[in-house]
Every structure is written in structure tokens, then in C-alpha cells.
Amino acid sequence: MSDTSNNYVNFFQAKKGIKSWIFTLDHKRIALLYLYAVMSFFLVGVLLGLLMRLELIAPGETIMKATMYNQTFTLHGVIMIFLFIIPSVPAIFGNFFLPIMIGTDDVAFPRLNLLSWWLYIAGATLALLTLVVGEGPADTGWTFYAPYSVQTGTNVTMAVMAAFILGFSSILTGLNFIVTIHRLRTPKMKWFNMPLFTWALYATSWIQLLATPVIGITLLMIVAERVFGVGLFDPAIGGDPILYQHLFWIYSHPAVYIMILPAMGIISEIIPTAAHRTIFGYKAIAISSLAIAFVGYFVWGHHMFTSGMSGPARIIFSILTFLVAIPSAIKVFNWTATLYKGSIEINTPLLYTLAFIFQFSVGGLTGLVVGALAADVHIHDTYFVVGHFHYVMFGGTGFAMFGALHYWFPKIWGKMYNTLVAKVGFTILFIGFNVLYFPMFVLGLLGMPRRYYDYLPEFTLWNQVSTVGSWILATGLIIVIINLINAYRKGAKAPVNPWGGVTLEWQVKSPPPLHNFDRMPIVSEDGPYDFSEEYKQKIKQA
Amino acid sequence: MKENEIQHITSFREHFSTYVSLVILTIMTVAVSVFGADLLSLTVLTAMAIATTKAVVVGYYFMHLKYDPMIYRLLVGIVMLLFVVFMILTIFDYVFR
Ligand SMILES: [Cu+2]
Predict the structure, then answer these.
(1) A414 assigned to some structural domain
(2) Does residue B37 share a domain with residue B16?
(3) Which partner for A149 in A12, A144, A196, A423 could form a disulfide, CB atoms 3.0-4.6 Å apart?
(4) How far does the centroid of ligand 1 lie from the alpha carbon of residue A370, in Å?
(5) How remote is the CA of residue A280 from the centroid of ligand 1, in Å?
């Protein structure tokens, strides 16, 4: 293997034609298949969100009727949760970089990996079919709360089956990653030599594997009730609607950690690279990922404070919820401590990272507000909650995802984007995001309920601010995406290691060769973020 | 990969007695639901205990957990514990409602 020559075959060139993509077993190609599919659905979800904001620009009916509004926010939720944010970071960047970061040539089960993608496509197709079949898409909200989901005439069964299939896709990805991390690490990579993105994926995978089956069963129970009239959740036929909420949130609360943990992993990668120093509190960050995953299993009841759950249960769940703040805060403090006195290079990925820390902190701290039993009784089901989870999910995971895209773009495609345009796009996106979602906190505290297409006249001003914010955000998004597409088409050749990163993916060529490594990767004994001169010399000499 | 390649040959006797014990446990479940139905939550508890025993027997003998390294038994144990905690937390709602 002569790695001095430039004419190696990268994974794009290894094979050609559509079949070489949709039946590929290469983790990098599967990652890109996910990228294109997930981003397409993201844009659909954004479009639905823009339509909702447009409806809310003035009180009364503006552009759609109540039922259609209900269907719009349901589809927005289903797409954003099941088709975008759950698969986004693990299936795209996890697939692409997990094997490379631990120094191996693929995931443990490449065929299973491909199956996951096909299941994703099958589930997505089913979700979209609800648009054109029968009574139209479900109008229940993405939570499918019973008994309404059992009674409504819209396509709940189909939407639920879509979520069921998508769940399997997620489970298989989790299983694949767990086995890969346990079995395929390059010999010198001990557990505490793994990059923190890998740790985050590991914790996430356990949630995917252990929590997702619960929602699978629950969704099947809805189908059983709708189709065969089994009395499980509908009180009219002897069921218990609160049982549904228990089962649903036993999955769906851990699921929010499927969404945020990998994003935190990305942040833990970008920060040491941008600060050119080893991460502060490596073990604390690694273990806190596991701690978040673990504690996250026992807090689901905080979604049910006002649904008639018993008093003692409410108090217990409120206390347990506060525990999650501890490992989350450990991460935030360690990130800021890493930046402190580092030689920081303010590049685009770092800008997204800083936005993540700010927005995630706002989202996380408002999470404590809604997690506090007494406060939640007042703001449950108001716009405050909508503001809270968009700050965490979009302001957190969404921004981390775009940060990752800018961080690893030169590695994936071997090309560089226009950094000035990227920074301008980021700035507009950041402003748009905050103008769009911050008013929701105010509206919520004023008492505006969520999921209504209409509102009282006194809420008009803040709703209009929010809608204008959605246009700013969309502008930023368009600039960011067009800039990346331009880079893909005609960007300048990127150096192998544009940011000066030290994790293993920066040792392989850009784009990586088919089997990732031409020679044994060089692992530092001093952990994955070894910025010492000796380690750099060692890599150079190899 | 080594530990996966070892062939475990289990005796007919062991397989059969596992099978018989599963059948007996199943009969017990049915019996409890028929004759002990008026004991209410006690019936449920007994049925759950029997089901747990069955799961352990299947995992240990049929799924060869007994040949696997300790770590796998530990992992299965954690998952079971997780489920138990789910149940306890949920029952906290139902008992005090
Ligand atoms: Cu939650």
C-alpha cells in the first residue's frame, strides 16, 4: 500500500450505478443514503412547520381549516421525530464515522445495516401514503393519544404501522452499533481510548435496543383496538387511556435521549478540535452519556402530570426528572472548561457548537421548569412546552447536525465549502431560530394552549414575531444548504485534516478509501484527544 | 470469536426435563388463573412470578446462557431489572390513584 500517491480509489469511485448505492454494504454509502433521505424529509417537515406558522400569523382561519391544521402538525411531528431527528445523527454520521473512529473497515453486520435503511424507506413510504389514502393523514398529534386515536376516522392505523416499521430500523441500527463497538475496535483502542462521539452512540444504541420495542408493542395495541375492538385504552370498552400514556412515554422519553445524546457526542468532537487541546473531563463526559441514558428510563411520568396520574407517582417522577439535569450539566461545564484558555479557532462547526450550548442550555433549563410538578400544572400543553422542546431538539440536535455536516463535509466529499457564506448562513439561521421559538415561551406563560389553529387576539403580536422568525430561519436554511450543494458540485479540494483534528477519521484520506484504512491506524495511549507534538510526529512518520 | 465456535452438546435428559418443567409451570399459571381468580392482585403477582421463572429457564438452558461469560448474564439481568422498575413505577400510579 503506497499511501504517498494521490491516485487511490475512494469509496465513491469504487463502484458506479444506482445498484451500487441502493444495495451497497459499505457503511459510508449507507450513511449517505440516509443523509439524502433524512434531509429530504427534514425539508418536508420544515415546509409543514412554515405552513403552521403562516396559519398562526393572525387569529381565526388564515390559510387552513382546523382539521387540516391538526393533520399538518401531526405529520410535522411524525416526520420530524421518526423520519428526521431519530435517525439523523446515528444513522448518518454514526454510520459514516463510527467504524472509522474506532479504526475498523465497516460495522459488524453490513447486511443488517442495509436492511435498516430499507426498513426506513418502507416506513417512510407508509407514512407518506397516509396523505393520499382514505380520510387523509392522522390528526392525533405525533403522540397518538388514546382514546382519540382509537376513535378518529383518519389514517391512524397506517401512520402507527409506519412508526412501528421505523422503530425496527432504529433497533437494528442500535444493535449493529453495540456489536461493532464491542467487537471491532482496533486492537490498541481500549474503552477509554474511544472518541466521545462513539461513547454517545454506544449509550444511544442501548436506548434504541431496549426502549423501542415498548413503543412497537404499544402501537400494535392501538391497531388491535382499532381493528379488532380489543378494549385496551378506550374506557368505553373497558380500557384505560392512562395506560396508553404510560406505555407511550416509557419509550418516548428515552427516545428524546436517542435524539440528543448523539448530538452531544458531536459537540464533544468539535470542541477539542476547535480549541486545539484535549477535552476537559473525558471520563466524566463518557460516563455521563451512560448516566443520561440510564436515568432517562425512569422519568417518563413527567409527561403525565395533568392526565390523572396518582399524586405520589407525580412527585416521584418530578424528583427523578431533576436527576437528568446533573449529567447534562456535567457535559456543559466540561465543554466550557475545554474552551477556557484553549487556542480557539472560530470556524463554522464551532459556531454551530456554541449555538448548541446556548440553545441547549435554554432548552434544558426550561425543561426543569416543565419538570417541576407545581409549575407544570400551569404550563402543561401551552406554547411554553413547544418552545422548550424545539430549543432542545432543533436548537440542540438540529444545530449539532448542521455543525457535524460542516465539520465532516471535507472528510466525506474531500471538498471545502465557502466558509464565509457558511458563517453568514449560520448567523441568519441562529437569529431566525431564536426569533421563531423564543416568543413561544412568552406565549406559553401568557396561557396560549398548543395545537390550536386559532387564538385570542391578545396573543397576536408574539405570534407574528414568531412567524417572521420562521421566514428568517427558512432564509438561513436555504443559504446553508445551497452553499453545501455548491461545495459538493464545485468546491475546492479540501486538505485531509482541515481543522487539525486528532481522532482517527483525520488519518484517512478524503473521501475515505473503500476499506477506510490503508495501514493500521495509530492510536494514542493518552486518550483520543492527544494534541501533543509526539503524537503528531508519530502520525507523520507512519 | 472463539467462545462462539465451541459446540455445546446438551443431553436429551436436560432438554427434556427443561421442557417438562416449562409445561408444569404453564399448567400452574392456568390453575392459578382458574382457581385463584378471587385473590385479585395476588393472582397477578403469582402469574408474574411463574412467567419470570419460565423466562429464566428458557434463557438459561434453551438459549445457552449458562455457557456464556458472566457479562451476558449480567446484561440480561440489567434488562430484567429495568423491566421490573418500569412495573414498579407504573404500579405507583395505579395503587395510589
Ligand atoms: Cu420526557
Answers:
(1) yes
(2) yes
(3) A144
(4) 10
(5) 29
Percent of chain A with pLDDT over 70: 99
Chain B residues touching A250 at Cβ < 8 A = 86
Residues with CB under 5 A from ligand 1 (ion): A 253
Domain count of the fold of chain A: 1
Residue A64 CA to its chain's centroid (Å): 30
The 10s digit of each residue's pLDDT in A112-132 is 999 999 999 999 999 999 888
Please say if the pLDDT value at position A92 is more than 80: yes
> Is the bond into A511 cis (omega within 30 degrees of 0)?
yes
For the segment A175-179, the average pLDDT, to the nearest whole number, is 96
Domains held by chain B: number: 2
Residue A396 pLDDT greater than 60, yes or no: yes
Q: Say if residue B52 is in the same domain as residue B37.
A: yes
Residue-range definition of the domain harbouring residue B85 = 68-97
pLDDT at A5: 44
Calculate the alpha carbon distances from B87 to A8, A211, A293, A503 in Å.
56, 14, 18, 42
Q: Domain for residue A95, yes or no?
A: yes
Cell for A478? 436555504
Same domain? For B51 and B75 the reply is no
Ligand 1 centre to CA of A302 (Å) is: 6
The whole model's pTM is what?
A: 0.91
* A7 part of a folded domain: no
> Is the four-CA dihedral A208, A213, A214, A215 of positive or negative sign?
positive
Secondary structure (H, E, C), A49-89? HHHHHHHCCCCCCCCCCHHHHHHHHHHHHHHHHHHHHHHHH
DSSP state of A278: P
Query: Is the pLDDT confidence value at A284 over 80?
Result: yes
Q: The cell 455536516 sits on which residue?
A: A405
Q: Based on the domain organization, do B77 and B38 belong to the same domain? A: no
Residue B3, in any domain of the structure:
no
Interface predicted TM-score of the whole assembly (ipTM), two decimals: 0.79
Interface with chain A: mutation pick from B89, B95, B97, highest number of A CBs within 10 Å: B89
Query: Which range, of A263-277, A422-436, A513-527, averages the lowest pLDDT?
Result: A513-527
